[in-house]
Write a sequence for this structure.
């Protein structure tokens, strides 16, 4: 048996038919609102004075964790180096920053 599902959007302000979905951001959060042409126009008129005086912000790059010397690719090397130098470090888990700094200083000359 086949089913057909229909999704009908309603204007988020007055429950009428939707003509467009507006996206906007404020305070670091992004929002979407479904509006009729009339309500979308009203929204744009009300926000226009603020946009006139605002500066456009580029889309910020998503922050990705920076790979450090203790990333999985290097943690084995750091643990081996620490063991060879009598520095206690666990076989698993996070390597203390002080051990990473000592390893970096010893292997990169910084």
């Amino acid at each position: 048996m086949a089913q057909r599902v229909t999704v009908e959007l309603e204007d988020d302000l007055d429950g009428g038919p939707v003509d467009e979905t507006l996206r906007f951001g404020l305070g670091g959060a992004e929002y979407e609102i479904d509006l009729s042409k009339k309500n979308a126009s009203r929204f744009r008129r009300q926000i226009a004075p603020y946009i006139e005086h605002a500066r456009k912000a580029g889309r910020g790059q998503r922050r990705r964790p920076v790979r450090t010397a203790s990333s999985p690719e290097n943690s084995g090397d750091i643990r081996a180096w620490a063991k060879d130098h009598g520095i206690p470090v666990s076989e698993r888990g996070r390597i203390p920053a002080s051990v990473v700094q000592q390893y970096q200083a010893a292997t990169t000359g910084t």
Remarks:
- The beta strands are 20-26, 29-35.
- The two ends are 70 Å apart (CA to CA).
